[in-house]
Structures are given as structure tokens and as C-alpha cells.
């Protein structure tokens, strides 16, 4: 018996050690059933899609996503990666599956010849029998709603905005003559947001009227809450936002085959900010207030003290890096040093029908008093454009008088014994020399590693551009990056903080992961550009 089990395991192991292969999830299916052609390869393999959609005679294959599978055999773990294409046939019949090519570890892998038999869907299971209205039980032989009965629109909470004014964007399904169908976005199709910075949000549930009149026809509605976007216009003009592709499929009670439809984009007009702008305007758009916090009541000559400025409100502060020292040139406050900034934001309803981020940005500063007396810098004036009023506004902050006292006496340092000092001088000298040499070598290696990391992170930042959240995640997944690492990169990439700064705030293991992802993407992008 033990020999039999050993032979069985030895026979199973080669199944997990073979190279990439294509296979069908089933070779026979009813019309409308979900049938996939699957590429199975090792979990560590780097996969690049050559095309997202392949067409044949009466049948097509559409990229449906990537999954990872783990199998344990004889206490050994085998990881596999599954790349799926969904097959859609136009009518019953026997079909030759479209020949698909995918690049695995730099080598092209093809499906070869495969056949699929599609049978008519049986209608015997869908007959109504007495107690239920026929409204909820359609015959599966019907074609379902007309194409004009199904629409996906990209909507925004405003039709006219100012440059730099954030708005909310989301997809909405309009449907009629059917029970609400299944809907999902084709993630292989990018979303068009020309001249807008976009950030995808998760966990946002939006509610709109359940019925609307669109082009003179009544539709039922459903918001696609998987993706909600904050969009910030970068230049004036009239634009169409949200062009992409969605997949729709009927539910059991009102079945129809999967359809791929293009969205109806939203038309939006972006107005330029009034000209000329005030001298102190640095790009803040919204409605804000500024406050002074953690300000000391007393200070001493030669001893630094700190304080912070806080700007709070709703709108766009991405261009404001330092509201105090950047308001004039040369600097108005030469004795003040900027330390760091901390940004907090909370997505919420700002007013009736208006959603967005409530911002709370803190800016930290240090001051080293150089003379006794009253320390009082000039009043700070912070200028922003208020889109609600359509004009520039300025808020002022007055620094209170701060008394700088004389230097506090330092503690007396006890004199060392001269004999002890002389006897230990040589040992201390040798020890310090060794430490300095070692520190020098370590500093050179550290600086070299830091420089290389900054170069590759800046290169990746340049390629990412305005992509954020889900948009960034699916963009790098199309390059072949695994979904887990794509999610990590999308979480690390902030709207306002470059990757070089994010890298500094991460732990050692996360730093190594970010660098490894950056190197891999950089090599991939360079290779594609050279082809």
C-alpha cells in the first residue's frame, strides 16, 4: 500500500512541474453558460497579455482576469497562475476557439486548435406554474432587452467646474424591460479622463433616484459602487469623461447573454480661474480656514521652539507644500525653518448633494531665537480661489507676541582627572579612528544605495503620472505584475507624496518590496519602449 501511494504521488508531481498550457473549462455548454479558456502557468511566472480580445468565426474571447491557485502535495506547495479569457458565442453550433497568444517569461505561448460545442439552452426549466407572475419568469429562448434598453453612463456631481476644483464621478446603469442585470467593468479597458487627475475610492455607497427620464424614456437605475472617482481638472476646456467598456449579463429570472457595451461619457465644461490672480495665490481651490497651534508661551535665547499651522476645509490643496515660507520671495521669515507636513482627509457629504474630501493639513516649523525681546513675525496671508463664490479670498493669521528670555545657564561639567585622561587617550583615539573608518565605508555604501533607490523611484513616479487607486492597480497588472503586489503599489502611491518620500516612511521589508516592484516595472517598461 505504501508503495502504491508513493507511486501515486510521483505520478501527480509532474502535473505541477510542467510548463504553461491552455485548456477549456468545458468543451460542451449551453448557449449563455460561462465558458473560459484558461492559461495555467507557474505562480512566479511573469505574464504579459498581447491582446485583450480575440475574435473568431461567430465566437470571441475577452480577457476576464488573473487568479492565483495554491496546491499542496506531499507537504510541498505548488503555486499556479491562471489567466482567463471568457468565450462568447453568437448562436448554437460547433466552433473553433480563437487562437490566443500570451507572453510568459518573454516567450510566446499559443492555444493551438481547440473546439467548443454550444447547444441551445433548454426552456423547460423556466415555465411559470401558477403562483408567480410571468413578469419574473421569462423564457430563456428570448433575446432579452433591446440594446437601447441597457445603458451605462458616467456621471459627475457638476457639469461646470473651475480648474483645480475636485468633483465626484461614478458609473450608473440605466435599464428597462429587465430585472436588474449583473454588471462589471472590463478592467482590460482603461477609463478616459483627459486632462483630469483621477483617484479611485472604495467603500463609497452613493444613492440616486430609482427611476429617471433619459431621452424621453423612463429607466430604472443602479449605481456601480465598486468604483467612485475624485476628479480634478488640470486645464480649461470642454471634455468627455468616463469612456470605457462594461460587461452586462441577465439574471436567472430575466436571462440574456453577456453583452459588452461602451459607456456614455459625461460632458463637462472647465472654466479657467479669473485673471490676474492675486500675488499670494499658490493654487489652492476650495473654501479654507487657517489656524495656529502648539505655539509656546515663552522661549529662550539659543533654544529652538516649534509650532504648526493648520489649513482645514474642502477643496484642493495639492499645490500647497509650505504656506508660510513660500508666500514671498525672498523669504519673509528667514529665521523660520520648515520641518514637515501631515495631511489628513475625510470623504463625506460637504453639503446637500455635494460630496468630497474635508481636508486637515498640518505644517510644522522650527524657530531658533537669536536675540532677546519680543519675537513677532508678520501676519500670514493665505489666498485661495473659492469656486462657490467664483472669486479669490484671503484669510489672515496674526502671530501673538512671544517673549524671548535670556539663555538658560548650562550645567557645570565636572573636570576629569588629568592622569586618567592621559592614560585613556590612546585607547580612545584608536577606538574613534576605527569607528570613523567604519562609519565612512558604511556611509558611502548607504548613500550609493539611497541614490540608486531614488533614481528608480523617481523614474516610476514619472511613468505613473496621474494614475491612482484602481486605475494604477489595473494598469500595472496589464504589465504582468501580480494582483497582490499591484494592490500594494496602489496603496503606497499617494496623490501628493512622491514615492521617494513614501519609501522613507516604510518599514525595512516594505522598502525592499517597493524597490523590487519598482525595478521590475522599470525593466519591463524599458524593454517595451525598446521594442
Layout: helices, strands, pairs:
Layout: H1 2-17, E1 21-24, E2 28-30, E3 35-42, E4 47-49, E5 53-55, E6 59-73, E7 76-89, E8 93-96, E9 101-104, E10 107-110, E11 115-119, E12 150-156, E13 160-162, E14 167-175, E15 182-185, E16 196-201, E17 211-214, E18 217-233, E19 237-241, E20 245-249, E21 259-262, E22 266-271, E23 281-293, E24 298-300, E25 305-316, E26 336-351, E27 354-367, E28 373-375, E29 380-386, E30 391-397, E31 402-405, H2 418-464, H3 469-477, H4 483-492, H5 499-505, H6 508-530
Parallel strand pairs: 2-11, 13-22, 23-29, 24-31
Antiparallel strand pairs: 1-3, 3-7, 4-9, 5-6, 6-7, 8-11, 9-10, 12-14, 14-18, 15-20, 16-18, 17-18, 19-22, 20-21, 23-25, 25-27, 26-27, 28-31, 29-30
Description:
This protein is an alpha+beta fold and 531 residues long. It folds into 4 domains: 16-119, Immunoglobulin-like (Sandwich); 137-271, Sandwich (Immunoglobulin-like); 281-405, Immunoglobulin-like, CATH 2.60.40; 442-530, no CATH class. Helices cover 21% and strands 41% of the residues. The protein contains 6 helices and 31 strands. It has helices at 2-17, 418-464, 469-477, 483-492, 499-505, 508-530; strands spanning 21-24, 28-30, 35-42, 47-49, 53-55, 59-73, 76-89, 93-96, 101-104, 107-110, 115-119, 150-156, 160-162, 167-175, 182-185, 196-201, 211-214, 217-233, 237-241, 245-249, 259-262, 266-271, 281-293, 298-300, 305-316, 336-351, 354-367, 373-375, 380-386, 391-397, 402-405. It has a 6-stranded mixed beta sheet with strand order 26-27-25-23-29-30, with no helix packed on it. Strands 1-3-7-6-5 form a 5-stranded antiparallel beta sheet. Strands 12, 14, 16, 17 and 18 form a 5-stranded antiparallel beta sheet that branches. Strand 5 (53-55) and strand 6 (59-73) form a beta hairpin. Helix 2 (418-464) packs across helix 6 and helix 3 (469-477) runs antiparallel to helix 4. The protein starts with a helix and ends with a helix. The model is unreliable at 1-17, 71-77, 123-141 and 412-424 (pLDDT under 50).
Amino acid at each position: 500500500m505504501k508503495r502504491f501511494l508513493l507511486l501515486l504521488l510521483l505520478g501527480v508531481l509532474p502535473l505541477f512541474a510542467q510548463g504553461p498550457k491552455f485548456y477549456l473549462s468545458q468543451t460542451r455548454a449551453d448557449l449563455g453558460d460561462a465558458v473560459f479558456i484558461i492559461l495555467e502557468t507557474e505562480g512566479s511566472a511573469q505574464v504579459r497579455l498581447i491582446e485583450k480580445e480575440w475574435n473568431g468565426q461567430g465566437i470571441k474571447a475577452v480577457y476576464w482576469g488573473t487568479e492565483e491557485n495554491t496546491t499542496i502535495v506531499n507537504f510541498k506547495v505548488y503555486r499556479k497562475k491562471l489567466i482567463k479569457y471568457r468565450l462568447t458565442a453568437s448562436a448554437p453550433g460547433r466552433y473553433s476557439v480563437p487562437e490566443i497568444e500570451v507572453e510568459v517569461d518573454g516567450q510566446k505561448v499559443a492555444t493551438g486548435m481547440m473546439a467548443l460545442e454550444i447547444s441551445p439552452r433548454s426552456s423547460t426549466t423556466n415555465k411559470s406554474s401558477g403562483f408567480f407572475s410571468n413578469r419574473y419568469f421569462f423564457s430563456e429562448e428570448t433575446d432579452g432587452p433591446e440594446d437601447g434598453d441597457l445603458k451605462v453612463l458616467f456621471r459627475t456631481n457638476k457639469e461646470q467646474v473651475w480648474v483645480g476644483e475636485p468633483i465626484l464621478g461614478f458609473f450608473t446603469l440605466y435599464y428597462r424591460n429587465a430585472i436588474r442585470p449583473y454588471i462589471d467593468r472590463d478592467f482590460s479597458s482603461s477609463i478616459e479622463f483627459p486632462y483630469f487627475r483621477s483617484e479611485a475610492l472604495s467603500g463609497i455607497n452613493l444613492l440616486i433616484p430609482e427611476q429617471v427620464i433619459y431621452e424621453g424614456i423612463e429607466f430604472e437605475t443602479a449605481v456601480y459602487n465598486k468604483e467612485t472617482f475624485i476628479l480634478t481638472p488640470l486645464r480649461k476646456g470642454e471634455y468627455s469623461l468616463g469612456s470605457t467598456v462594461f460587461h452586462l449579463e441577465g439574471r436567472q429570472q430575466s436571462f440574456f447573454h453577456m453583452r459588452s457595451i461602451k459607456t456614455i461619457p459625461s460632458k463637462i465644461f472647465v472654466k479657467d480661474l479669473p485673471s490676474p490672480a492675486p500675488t499670494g495665490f499658490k493654487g489652492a481651490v476650495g473654501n479654507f480656514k487657517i489656524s495656529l497651534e502648539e505655539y509656546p508661551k515663552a522661549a529662550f535665547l539659543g533654544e529652538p521652539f516649534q509650532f504648526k499651522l493648520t489649513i482645514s476645509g474642502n477643496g484642493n490643496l495639492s499645490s500647497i507644500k509650505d504656506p508660510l515660507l513660500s508666500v514671498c520671495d525672498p523669504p519673509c521669515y528667514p529665521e523660520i525653518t520648515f520641518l514637515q507636513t501631515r495631511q489628513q482627509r475625510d470623504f463625506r457629504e460637504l453639503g446637500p448633494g455635494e460630496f468630497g474630501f474635508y481636508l486637515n493639513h498640518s505644517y510644522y516649523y522650527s524657530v531658533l531665537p537669536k536675540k532677546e525681546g519680543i519675537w513677532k513675525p508678520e501676519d500670514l496671508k493665505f489666498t485661495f480661489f473659492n469656486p462657490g463664490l467664483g472669486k479669490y479670498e484671503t484669510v489672515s493669521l496674526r502671530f501673538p507676541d512671544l517673549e524671548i528670555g535670556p539663555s538658560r545657564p548650562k550645567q557645570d561639567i565636572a573636570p576629569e582627572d588629568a592622569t586618567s585622561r592621559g592614560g585613556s587617550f590612546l585607547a580612545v583615539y584608536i577606538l574613534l579612528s576605527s569607528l570613523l573608518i567604519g562609519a565612512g565605508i558604511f556611509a558611502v555604501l548607504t548613500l550609493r544605495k539611497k541614490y540608486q533607490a531614488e533614481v528608480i523611484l523617481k523614474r516610476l513616479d514619472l511613468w505613473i503620472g496621474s494614475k491612482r487607486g484602481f486605475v494604477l492597480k489595473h494598469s500595472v497588472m496589464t504589465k504582468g505584475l501580480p494582483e497582490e503586489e499591484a494592490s500594494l503599489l496602489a496603496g503606497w502611491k499617494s496623490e501628493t507624496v512622491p514615492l521617494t518620500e513614501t519609501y522613507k516612511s516604510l518599514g525595512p521589508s516594505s522598502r525592499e518590496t517597493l524597490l523590487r516592484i519598482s525595478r521590475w516595472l522599470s525593466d519591463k517598461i524599458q524593454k517595451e519602449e525598446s521594442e
